[in-house]
Q: What sequence folds into this?
């Protein structure tokens, strides 16, 4: 919890800082108690005939890069897989499957969810506790739905979050274009409110 008294900068017990109501957590070695959380990077996202993810190929490249970086240091990777009956996310369908470029391995964890919150009525919290995870590096889809909700939910449960600002995406929605949605959510979620923002190229797990 971040409480501001008369001073503008307060040192917290974990080494983080509280500055004007915004909490900046202290990050020790990146791969220490850290997991990569890959949210809803499923074939359906890439197969809608009338919609295309913003910056689709680059975002997928960045997500793939994050998975590869995590594998290089044996960092836990947790895949979130949206599951919904009578839709393109029906379990077992080709569109429900996680994209082949980042296909989970037998050592990875796959958590199925049915809402925008990756923690709600799933075993995600249980798996993270089992692995003694304290920090989450978050990538995936869609920015204003499952990314936004999962980042906020993780924060409320005490996790230190890094949101990879160029490794999540969404679609135009009729009111805003996708780039506006993404920029807005990076601004709202980042800055130490719910997550620290980093670009793919700036993240190293060494």
A:
């Amino acid at each position: 919890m971040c409480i501001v008294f008369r001073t503008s900068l307060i040192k917290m017990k974990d080494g983080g800082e509280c500055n004007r109501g915004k909490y900046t957590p202290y990050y020790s070695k990146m791969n220490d108690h850290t997991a990569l959380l890959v949210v809803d990077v499923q074939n359906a996202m890439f197969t809608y005939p009338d919609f295309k993810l913003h910056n689709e190929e680059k975002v997928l490249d960045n997500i793939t890069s994050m998975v590869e970086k995590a594998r290089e240091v044996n960092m836990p990777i947790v895949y979130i897989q949206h599951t919904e009956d009578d839709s393109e996310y029906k379990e077992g369908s080709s569109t429900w499957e996680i994209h082949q470029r980042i296909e989970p391995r037998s050592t990875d964890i796959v958590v199925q969810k049915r809402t925008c919150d990756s923690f709600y009525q799933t075993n995600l919290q249980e798996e993270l506790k089992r692995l003694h995870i304290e920090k989450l590096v978050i990538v995936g889809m869609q920015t204003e739905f499952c990314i936004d909700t999962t980042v906020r939910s993780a924060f409320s449960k005490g996790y230190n979050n890094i949101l990879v600002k160029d490794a999540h995406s969404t679609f135009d929605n009729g009111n805003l274009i996708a780039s506006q949605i993404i920029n807005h959510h990076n601004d709202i979620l980042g800055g130490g409110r719910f997550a620290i923002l980093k670009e793919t190229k700036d993240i190293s797990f060494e």
Q: What stands out?
A: The radius of gyration is 17 Å. The chain has two domains: 1-27, 31-202.
